[in-house]
Every structure is written in C-alpha cells, then in structure tokens.
Amino acid sequence: MTEHPIEFAFPDIARWRDGNSGTPFVHVFDSGTAGPTVMLNALTHGNEVSGAIVVDALLADGFRPQRGTLILSFANVEAYFSFNRAHPFKSRMIDEDFNRVWSRLDGPGDTVELRRARALRPFVERADLLLDLHSMHDDCVPLMLAGPLDKGVALARRVGTPVDIIRDKGHPSGRRMRDYGGFGDPDSPKGALLIETGQHWRASSVAVAKDVTARFLAVSGIVKPADLPADWRQPAPPAQRVVQVTHAVATRNGKFRFNRRYDGQEIIARGGTVLGHDEETPITTPYDNCVLVMPSNHRVRAGVTILRMGHVV
Ligand SMILES: [Zn+2]
C-alpha cells in the first residue's frame, strides 16, 4: 500500500509508440516556418505521470506549432509500463536513473536507461529549448530546477511560475538531461528547465504541468497562447524567488532519518540546527536562514541525495 493516493487515471501512451521520428515514443512536428526547436519531455522517471498526461493530451489534440519545431517525447517508457500499484515507487527506473547517465552516453554501459538516452540524444541535441516534466515522491510545493547558470534562472523567470526557482548544480552521481550539451554551456543560447510539479499522483501536479507547459510554449514563441487549451493556465504568483543550492546531502548507507517531517522550502532560522541523522552522524544547517530543498522523508538507497540546502538570493 502507498500513503500517497493516486488521484487520476494513467494515460494509455502505448498508442504513441510509433511516432514520425523513427524513434519510438518521439514525435517531431516541424511547422515549416523558421523558429526554435522546442522539446517537451515526460517520464524521465517512469512513475512521474503528470507530465505524461500533458504530452499525451497534446498528441491527442493534434497540437502543432505555428513556428519552429515541437518535439514531444516519453523517455523511460519501459519503467512507465512496469508500474505496479502495489509498489508504485519502483517504476521510477528499470536499471538505473535515466537522469544521471548523461555524462556516460559514449561509455561502455548497456542499461535500459543508457540505451534510451542514446536514442533520445539526437533530439535533445537538436532542441534549442527543453522542458523536462518531473514530479516528486513527497508532497512538496512545485519547484523549477533551473540548473547552475544565469540563463536558466532567466528562462524560469520568463515562464513566471512556480514561486520557487532552484538554482543547483545537479548530482555528483551523474549529469542530468537538463545539463547536457549546450544546456550546460554558459556560452550557448540553448535553455532547459526541469519542473517538479508536486507529488507524482496528485491531481494538482497535473494542473501545474499544464500551466508550466502552456507558459513554456508561449515563451518559446512557437505557438500563440490562444492555441493552447484555455483552462491550462493558472494565475501567476505575485513574485518568484531564487534559492541558490549550496549543499547536497547524500545518505552514506541508506539509514538517514529526519528528526521530524519536512515538507520542503522551510527556512530554518539558525545555522547549526540538527535536522536529522545519517546513522549516527547529525545533519545540520550550515548557516542561518537555510532553505530545505526536496527533503526525502522516506527511505532511500545508499548514496542517494536526501536533502539539498540553500539560501534565497
Ligand atoms: Zn524526476
């Protein structure tokens, strides 16, 4: 049983296997008019379904760009198809995390996720703008992960939602898709964002995914805002804030426990506050007014990031 209810029906994406791109579950729509190539990707993690609902809806609606090119993709489809209600968190991946393999594509590995990343690479390389649609294990407010560069923060501000823009370096365990190639190069005009829409199976996460997608497409200039379903847009927050991540804490052996439940985005007033213990080692805030980003209130494997810490800039 899961403590997290599943509030929507999962989309039947098997019907999108045969795209027009030569690569399964990748659909490319060229308007024939000059403009950027925009990629919307869902299911980087197989159980993060809100993004799949959005990409499924765009395909079902026959949505097409007016300028440039739109790429719609489902990444870790094998993980998605492995979903089991009895163990809903297991379908995040098959062999390894698809979003940690992007520095190893030319290496010798041969996992499900490496093979899929190699298949998606030409499309990721072609994209000028990438929106990667994710969601979170725990109930947490939506977060835009903008990467380490100024251009990511600027793009997130143009999108205009959600409130929290997270400026972060990614994971020492491997490069994310959103940091790959030109997206991670300060001298490239390419831009990528990763939206965490909320808890994986909350209806509210679908609302966030639709809103962010509509805004991202409008910012890209390949559509007119009126082309998108009118009910996808939500009111913009009055302001956004940027949290610079300075610390990422990984559990050494999977025995991390917080002292209490944290929902994420709490600001802890005092430096040195004990948040929890990794086996015997206390984990403390490194400075005053520390923001807790994506705390894992659940057990994770050894080596996995259980908390990021940062400050509002
Ligand atoms: Zn994810």
Report a brief summary of the structure.
Helix content is 19%, strand content 25%. It is of the alpha/beta class and 313 residues long.
3D architecture notes:
The protein is α/β, with parallel strands linked by helices and 313 residues long. The chain folds into two domains: 13-232, Zn peptidases (Aminopeptidase, 3-Layer(aba) Sandwich); 245-312, OB fold (Dihydrolipoamide Acetyltransferase, E2P). The protein has helices at 50-60, 77-81, 112-126, 150-159, 203-220, and strands spanning 26-30, 37-42, 69-74, 129-136, 143-145, 164-167, 191-199, 241-250, 256-258, 267-268, 274-278, 281-284, 290-293, 305-312. The radius of gyration is 19 Å and the shape is globular. The mean pLDDT is 95. Zinc ion binds at residues 44-45, 48, 134.
Task: Please identify the top-level CATH class of the largest domain.
Answer: Alpha Beta
Euclidean distance between termini CA atoms: 40 Å
Number of DSSP-assigned strands: 14
CATH superfamily caption of the largest domain: Zn peptidases
**Tell me, what's the shape?**
globular
Q: From the alpha-carbon coordinates, what is the Rg to the nearest angstrom?
A: 19 Å
Tags for this model:
Aminopeptidase; alpha/beta; OB fold (Dihydrolipoamide Acetyltransferase, E2P); 313 residues; 11-stranded mixed sheet; globular; binds zinc ion
